[in-house]
Amino acid sequence: MLRFDVRACRWLQDGPSPANGGRQLVLDFDIVIVGGGAAGCAVARRLADAGEHSVLLLEAGTDLGGQVPPALRDGWNNPSGSDWTHDWGFESEPDGAGATSKLRRGRLLGGTSWLTRFGVRGVAADFDAWAARGNPGWRYEDVLPSFRRLETDAEFGDRPWHGDRGPLNINRYPELERSPIHAAALEALSALGFPSVEDHNAPDAVGAGPMPMSTKEGRRITSLDAYLPPDARPANLKIRTGSPVATVVIGGRRATGVRLVDGTEVGARWVVLSAGTYGSPSLLLRSGVGPAGHLRELGIDVLVDLPGVGENLADHPGTELDTGWRGDPPAGAPVLHTIATFRSSTQPRDRPPDLMFWVTDPTPGQPAFYLDPILLKPTSRGSVRLRSSDPEDKPRVTLPGLRESHDVERLAEAYLLGLELAIYPAVRTLANEPAPAPPGSHKELRAQVIAGSYSNPHVVGTCRMGPSPANGDVVDALGRVHGIEQLSVIDASVIPDAPSGFPHVITLMVAEHLSEKLARLL
């Protein structure tokens, strides 16, 4: 058997290799991280830098290295079609109308950070609520150092709630001219009482202003760029791509390593799952950690009955509101964004904003001006389940949609406000098609909101952080899986509730925060 001695940096021959005898290849590391996406890259860097631990980062997909296609580097748009070939190929379960959705997730080093470019944190009350539900150490004042550590904010780096020397660039591009639709939208929003916001990452920012973007000079900055650039990787960190993981190896309620799909076993003193909102719960389920009934149905031995694994799937549902404006932007022009956050009539003033309008420059593929309402604090929840114990079977993902009437009502309230924005004179002066017609009744309004609804998707929550396994919590405030020693989850799946910001930068904060805590346990 071949065994890799990390400290000696060489292979030790204990018997025939797979090529010579079909035996498993066994690797031993202090820390194994499963998933080289947004969180995994950050966790790998911080844990490697924290000491002399040997760290292995396992990624199912490839490493683009220096061969990055222009569409992936473009910080103004998302790659699609033939420009996006590194996807897991997930698809949602049919909704009530029988429709399914493609669930784009990156299968490459850097993960889904190749698909995002937004850096909105949300407000302080989001994180205070995490602490209030039994997660000590997660108040805003606790996580602020982690936010500051991860960023270099181009406009506000000198302010006490921002960083000016972190690995991720945050820009709002005030020097670039916005298209007329932004001016019209901002004028309409101001007339309807929205305060102006210059920094949507200020602790209590609620109102209208530019979208913070995780880009630099129009180039997408991924988690891979920020934490693991090819020319600056720690010597004690090994990265193995093309290595999908089948299960966590667990003995006596303790994680002892992982087993790859190809049969390779990796021994570890600590295992960290950073496989994302769909991947981390799937790994736990295949490993015998999750709802006992579901596991037994699939013939998986139940090691820990943990009901919350794969539950609590939350995202940010929106609904379409077309103003009637049409026009093609210049080819290659920057695509800038304005967001306007606010509270519904049922949201207390001391809680985070639960609604948002999202204004974006039109693109050649969508030459229209939308004022889409987005629900930031939904109560609807979906789930992640396995189809079988086969690790190559894609999970069954049921999106939350608009299951709860309260969610429909709040989006309906925002839709009516959006209609007022759409008929504002500054908007109508630009529009070359009729304004959207108001629904004839509240029933029609609800039906229109549901018919035009979609997932953004900003999915979180399937390994929820909290103190009570019986009530659906999966990891504790240190990211450790309830009931299994030396096994952590560090990614968007531990986020307890949909934030009033976007998950990407919040996920990096979680990675920074939990990596620091884990380093003290090693």
Structure in words:
- Helix 10 (405-422) packs across helix 12.
- It is built from 13 helices and 27 strands.
- The chain is α/β, with parallel strands linked by helices.
- The strands form nine sheets. Strands 1, 2, 3, 4, 12, 13, 14, 15 and 27 form a nine-stranded mixed sheet that branches. It has a four-stranded antiparallel sheet with strand order 9-20-21-23. A two-stranded antiparallel ribbon has the order 5-6.
- The longest helix is centred in the last third of the chain and has 19 residues, at 503-521.
- The two termini are 28 Å apart.
- The chain has two domains: 1-66 and 107-171 and 221-316 and 381-399 and 460-522, FAD/NAD(P)-binding domain; 173-210 and 317-377 and 404-456, Cholesterol Oxidase, domain 2 (2-Layer Sandwich), CATH 3.30.410.40.
Break the fold down into its secondary structure elements and pairings:
Elements: E1 2-5, E2 10-13, H1 18-21, E3 26-34, H2 38-49, E4 55-58, H3 70-73, E5 90-91, E6 102-103, H4 124-132, H5 140-150, E7 151-153, E8 168-170, H6 180-191, E9 208-210, E10 215-216, E11 219-220, H7 223-227, E12 237-240, E13 245-250, E14 255-260, E15 265-273, H8 276-286, E16 289-290, H9 292-297, E17 304-305, E18 317-319, E19 322-326, E20 337-342, E21 355-360, E22 368-370, E23 372-375, E24 383-385, E25 396-398, H10 405-422, H11 425-430, H12 442-451, E26 453-455, E27 487-489, H13 503-521
Parallel strand pairs: 1-3, 3-4, 3-15, 4-12, 7-8, 15-27, 16-17
Antiparallel strand pairs: 1-2, 5-6, 9-20, 10-11, 13-14, 14-15, 18-26, 19-22, 20-21, 21-23, 24-25
